[in-house]
Amino acid sequence: MEKKNFTVSIYTENNLGLLSRIAAIFLKRHINIESITASQSEVDQVMRFIIVVRVSPEQIRKIIGQLEKQIEVIRAFYHTDEDMIFQETALYKIRSSHFVEDLEIQNFIKESNARIVTVTSGFFVIEKTGRRHETESLYEKLKPYGLMQFVRSGTIAVTRNEMQISGMLEKFNSNPIS
Amino acid sequence: MESRTISVEKKTAQVTVSGAEAVIRCLLEEGVETIYGYPGGAIMPIYDELYKYREQVHHVLTRHEQGATHAAQGYARVSGRVGVAMATSGPGATNLVTGIADAQMDSTPLVCITGQVGSHLLGSDAFQEIDIVGISTPVTKWNYQVTRASEIPAVLARAFYIARSGRPGPVLIDITKDAQFESLEYSYRKCMGIRSYTPAPEVNLLAVERAARMINSAKKPLIVFGQGVILGKAEKLLREVVELTGVPAAWTILGLSALPSDHPLNVGMVGMHGNYAPNMLTNECDVLIAIGMRFDDRVTGNLERYAKQAQVIHFEIDPAEINKNVPADIPVLGNVRQTLKLLKEFLVPNSHRNWRQQFEDLDQIERTKVISKDLDITRPALGMAEVITEVNRCSQGNAVIVSDVGQHQMVTCRYARFNQSRSNITSGGLGTMGFALPAAIGAKMGAPHREVVAVIGDGGYQMTIQELGTIFQTKVPVKIVILNNSFLGMVRQWQQMFFDQRYASTEMVNPDFVAIARGYHIKARQVNHRSELEDGVREMMESKEAYFLEVKVEQQENVFPMIQTGDSVSEIILE
Predict the structure, then answer these.
(1) Tell me: the pLDDT tens digits for B290-303?
(2) CB neighbours of B374 closer than 8 A, spacing ≥ 6?
(3) Which residues does B175 contact at the CB level (< 8 Å), separation at least 6?
(4) Which of B366, B413, B372, B381 is closest to B557 using CA atoms?
(5) Which chain B residues touch A if contact means CB-CB below 8 Å?
(6) Catalytic site residue from B29, B33, B44, B128
(7) pLDDT score of B2 more than 60
């Protein structure tokens, strides 16, 4: 079956070791994680992992099953790019001399809606938030000038549909010992 | 963690105790009577408490930590209770891993407790420090490192709840040495729920009804049941469903003994070395009813040609198993004890006489081509099946049979007769050689009134042979049968069939097993000839003490039937 990008959202308890438990599920199946982020979610004390993987639809269904099986995973979902609103952030560090001497760079930055976050006599740091192809396109443009450093965050994403985690947890709290 | 669990009201009055004592008190609260383990530096405070509580908790000193986990597994599998194993940090903890992995594959409830270096030393590569939480993560249902004594009661309550509920499995709790020494205000509340964990999915009554309709209208239905029936305590329900519907029922290796061997609708084992009829007819049935099993590759053979003609109904507690290997037309989630009970109400009586005749016809072929050869007493050397048959004759199907891994295991599962559940203890999913001897120790302690016979090959026996010391010290009256063919038989069979008889490292030069057993003061006897077999087995079974019986069997016997790798179940060969 054809592979495509899936964004996996995992709501979990905030517990030590859970990242390695989640990563192990992908490792066991020889699946490379394209990007991963973890942060506080919309629910107090509940973490949300966003993991992007390139797998077949069948594989992703099985992985969700394995993820949900973990004791401290509250729910796991998968979405295709169409179901998500997602962004990445990239930072580009370039020499001040290039920036000042080459007007083209300034144009790139303006055209791509990037932002200058730090200026020193030695270097500039530019930030660009957007889709992967946008951060990549700016990277390609700046690369010939010699990037001193480049880094890109993992994908962060929210779904178009409601996630209903709070409701699920409330149900647990109001319905002890079932 | 407190806010995320549901616990029963405070049961015990608050007292100030050390973390180590809290551990023992928690075990007592959970009804633990027997622990298997091995002491060492980082777990000494807990062992010190075990000394004080020795009247209440029986600690069995195994001779290796792997033996402790396998013994705890044997105890759990035979009794349905949670097995407990304990070890020190570092090598003690890593030695537990094989048993933990085995328990994970075979859904066995275990709580393993390991000592850990003091929390101030974590990450310093201290003496006997190992990241056992990291190492055990992929092979545990849950694990946790305790660094403060105050966490102990809630964490252990969770550990037992997780190990035994839903699809059972192993839990590892790592406790730093300072947390064992530290004091806490102890009180115990049993865990009854965890918000992020649903032990058994809610039953969908519509799915049950649909399943019943499909079963009722089936012309050639086949049940394949697994250990889920035993874990769900649904043996009686299974039997009722089978008898009501007249549907032939086959079993996976871990489902064995859930339905009595001599039940007329018990049609034998499925899978690589299973019986001829259920394997052949898997590819002819119109409805395949899978109950508490997970379609392991050793069961299905080539998935592309597995029961493609059949509608599949899958009764299963673990949602991750649905559509994992074989797509289910009707998945019925839930504990089979619940779902079979509901199912029964919708079923109509049937007998499926013609369909059952097909099983009998194929059985006849297997009897002629395989079984008669396996039991042929005109052969010069003894066959493995003859030994199992002799054990059956003495046990009358009442014994717990613990087998190891390899040819003898397949022969044991094919030939051993059982008339009660929880009687077949073997390492199924992981295939752990060395499992049987320590597992038999645990099984006998978990079911002291039952006869426990370990059947082991000469290879696997030597992987945990040191547990003879445990038998000697505890005087646990297990019976041990070694089927000695001086080969790693299953590997040798594959070398013969698929590697042009190049017997690379499969021939065993074995020691004097009888002398070794006697060295541990265990009664021992060797059977070399068929004429001595009956008497040898009888003497073993009549012994009130532990007994070791070495049987020299044919060196190059092969196990048939067999589904070769890549073949379909219906391409099973008989010779």
Answers:
(1) 999 999 999 999 99
(2) B383, B384, B385, B386, B411, B415
(3) B19, B23, B43, B46, B113, B114, B115, B116, B145, B146, B152
(4) B381
(5) 4, 6, 8, 133-134, 137-138, 141-145, 162, 192-197, 318-324
(6) B128
(7) no
Is B177 known to be catalytic?
yes
Q: In terms of Cα–Cα distance, which of B280, B135, B192 is closest to B9?
A: B192
Whether B319 sits inside 8 A of A172 (CB atoms) is no
Query: Which of A71, A176, A177 is opposite residue B197, by nearest beta carbon?
Result: A71
Summarised one tens digit per residue, pLDDT across range B148-182 is 999 999 999 999 999 999 999 999 999 999 999 99
CA distances from B463 to B427, B452, B494, B571 (A): 14, 20, 21, 34
B324 vs A contacts (CB less than 8 Å): 62, 65
In the residue annotation, B490 being an active-site residue is answered as yes
B128 a catalytic residue: yes
* DSSP H or E run through A52: strand A46-55
Q: B168, exposed or middle or buried, with CB in 10 Å at 0-12, 13-18, 19+?
A: buried
Which chain B residues have a beta carbon less than 8 Å from that of A46?
none
Nearest-by-CA chain B residue for A168: B195
The DSSP string of B294-327 is ---HHHHBSGGGSSTTSEEEEEES-GGGTTTSS-
Tell me whether residues A74 and B195 touch, CB distance under 8 A.
yes
Indicate the pairing of strand B34-37 with strand B191-194: unpaired
Strand partners, B67: none
